[in-house]
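Holo model, zinc ion. Inputs:
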Amino acid sequence: MNGGHPNMEKISDYLTNRLSIEEEISVQEHLHSCSECMEKVRRMRSLRDSIFDGQDKTEEESTFIRIVKSTAFKAAAAVIILAGITLFIRESLRTTEEVTIQYQIFQEREQIDPPLYIDTFSTEDSLYYIEQYGEDFEEGK
Amino acid sequence: MKRIIEEIFTKENERYNLRGLGFFKTPEHEAALCLKEFPFDPLESLSSYRERILDKYYRLRGFSLFCREHIRDEMFEKGIFIIMKRELVQRIKGSKRTDTDKYLAPENDSVSFLLTEKQFQEIYALNFGCIRATFNTPEELRQYCDSLLNTYFPLEEKSVISEFINNTTPFWEKFYIKIRPICSAICFRMSGAGFQNFADDFWSDTCVVINRFITSESRPSNLNARSIISYAVGILKNKNRELGRLRRKANIDIDNLKYKLTDEDEELFFNNPATLSSNFKSHDFHFSTNIDIQDQYAVRGYFVVILYNEEHPLHNELTEGLQDKIANLFLHYIDGISYEEIVHRNKGDITEKEMAKEAARLRQEIKRVKETLLKRYYKLMEKYR
Ligand SMILES: [Zn+2]
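Output:
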């Protein structure tokens, strides 16, 4: 903590049991001497306890299982793809975070065009892999 | 002094679920008892006091006997499961990424340190069934768990692959998250900025196909982590070719399709603070490693962390449009201010009848805000798992 107040991330990790014992003790040492941080911890706990008072959320079926189940029953490809064609012509610019990076990788690839083999599959696109996995994907099978 | 000792016991309780296990009455009660038995010397540092008394305190309270008596309780077993999973999260943070994880787990996450309930039960039956070790403190119990984990983790690639073949859900879930950005990237490559409209469908289709392939008898005999991801990519690429063929059939003018970003798009994609890589929530942030959904302290704690911390990457998504109302919720829940007092602060002196009406309205409003926030939170957990 370098003598200063622990930052919000540290306090959050403290509250959610994500610190090692040593880190936890060091936060407590600070709380002992800093009423401001102690008050912050108290407020967060108090919010937690009152919000969840009487709540008991049971675990729901996970997204993926639902996706997999629902997709299995879809009339699949044709419908999806036709819908896709109509939709992607529209210049929808909803940004998806990953794509920025992927796109940069693709852009770079267009200049360098390195060899790429992914096991049994063809060598086109997928530069993502070279970036992500390096040489492994250039060795070929 | 009392306050910090209460804090220590509150934390002990959060860390080891001692109240849930039936060992603690309340942290306040334990703190008072502890201070009575072991007075604090003002010249001593807190950490030295903590070290000196916690051990003695747990012995005095009979922690080891408590463990022996409760080792077969379901609650106790669940508590140990949570302790082990928390330890494993620490290991993901603190150890070198395995090759298996490189191919099969999302960034900052791991399949090599994944403990399923089934495996836990095996470990528990084997190591806690006829236990000879005594645990004088929860910390000793945690250390014992830690030493057990050393013998099982990180899982070998072979064991991970057999979990995939046996269709073990938590392993597949991590892999599905892993291939999501790859799927987006390939779709984007093929289809330009409109990719997102069908990237999710491609992703879920690919998940189904790869899962069927790997869990079927027709899978190759020498599977490894790298070949699993390679098959997933192959499936994706084939799907994109399918799309290409359909496109031609559907008589779409291919020349007019968007394959590249325009300058305007580029501005939006790259020069927009909202698309900075540091904000890539689904890359940097996985609820699956941050929150163990079976661990109520983590689930509840994380909600407050997002709600209270305005700088948290998910704060705006959680609170959008509710900021004013959340201020009232804080006043009521954190500061314990009555509905009437909040109304008074906002509206000044009003008649008794108006006050009753306004206070009732505020009560309803706070209740609704709370419900909306919780609903959004559970949705976020699903979205970023
Ligand atoms: Zn402080």
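The longest helix of chain A spans residues 35-51. The two ends of chain A are 49 Å apart (CA to CA).
Archived with the compound record.
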